[in-house]
Amino acid sequence: MTHPASPYLVPGFYDRALRDGRHRDIVGGRWDETGRLQLALLHAQGMRPHHRLLDIGAGSLRLGCKAVPFLDPGNYWATDASRALMLRGRAVELSDPDRLPEDHLIEDADFGFPGLPDRLDFTIAFGVFTHLPPAVTAHAMTRIAHRAQGFGVILFTVFIAPDGQEHAALRQPDGVVTHPDRPPYHLTETTLLAMAVDAGLAITRLPDRLPRGQVLWRAAPGTTG
Ligand SMILES: C[S@@+](CC[C@H](N)C(=O)[O-])C[C@H]1O[C@@H](n2cnc3c(N)ncnc32)[C@H](O)[C@@H]1O
Q1: Nearest CA to ligand 1 atom 20
Q2: Which of 24, 60, 117, 213 could serve as 173's disulfide partner, Cβ 3.0–4.6 Å?
């Protein structure tokens, strides 16, 4: 059996999921817990209501439905490969959609970041690189690095495989099985650090425990060292 490089690349995937009312399922489930956790991570990094947040690969606003009421109106921006998915989240998951202007939801599958303000205070890509082939993650990191001066504190997650164990399937701490060549993807820390150097990002592993054994990283422009 062949597997797609990402479920999100399967033709018609978003249309079918939205038609079937599965906008929560296709971003990974654990809706409340994971949204709350992301907001708590950002709060712990210093995010307050007056700050501006960018949610890369925001999906159906699992974080957005918590962050929009927390932030001052208009201070949340999101990108995703599917704008329809974000719009569904805005329509059905926000108690007050007017706090989130529709033009803050930006379709962007190539990490080009069009239409964003020059200055954001916090940026998060949660559970996004976990679903992208390593070459696409490397590309995304390069694009993020180009904009990093204006992205504020940058957080992202990946699955890590110990050096030497990256070539086969691997059971992560809470049971999910990750793979080198199909989603959910893992990388070694060595590979990730090399990608960051190539991209021009300094990255730091954070100690937070995350669902499914993802590892949280903070990035800033520059070189790790
Ligand atoms: C596992 S979901 C996580 C969504 C969200 N960050 C959250 O925590 O709820 C992964 C998201 O990445 C988006 N995605 C996949 N490929 C993408 C790409 N090339 N560019 C932007 N977003 C992408 C998917 O549409 C999906 O919403």
Answers
A1: 109
A2: 213
Task: Check whether 90 has a pLDDT greater than 80.
Answer: yes
Domain positions in the chain are 7-221
- By the 8 A CB rule, do 90 and 75 touch? no
How many Å lie between the centroid of ligand 1 and the Cα of residue 126? 8
Residue with token string 């018609």? 12
Q: How much is the pLDDT for 29?
A: 82
pLDDT tier at 211 (50, 70, 90 boundaries)?
confident
Please give the distance, rounded to the nearest whole angstrom, from the Cα atom of residue 135 to the centre of ligand 1: 16
Topology of the domain comprising 7-221: Rossmann fold (3.40.50)
Contact in structure between 199 and 138 (CB atoms under 8 Å): yes
8 pocket-lining for ligand 1 (C-beta < 6 Å): yes
∠ at Cα 147 (11, 137), nearest 5°?
40
Q: Is the pTM of this model over 0.90?
A: yes
Q: Are 53 and 43 in contact (CB under 8 A)?
A: no
Phi (first) and psi of residue 107, to 5 degrees: -75, 125
Q: Which residues contact residue 155 at a Cβ distance below 8 angstroms, ignoring those fewer than 6 apart?
A: 41, 42, 45, 122, 123, 124, 125, 126, 206, 216, 217, 218, 219
For the Cβ of 154 lying below 6 angstroms from any atom of ligand 1, the answer is: no
pLDDT tens track for 26-59: 998 899 999 999 999 999 999 999 999 999 999 9
pLDDT reading at 224 higher than 90: no
Residue 27 in contact with ligand 1 by CB distance below 6 A: yes
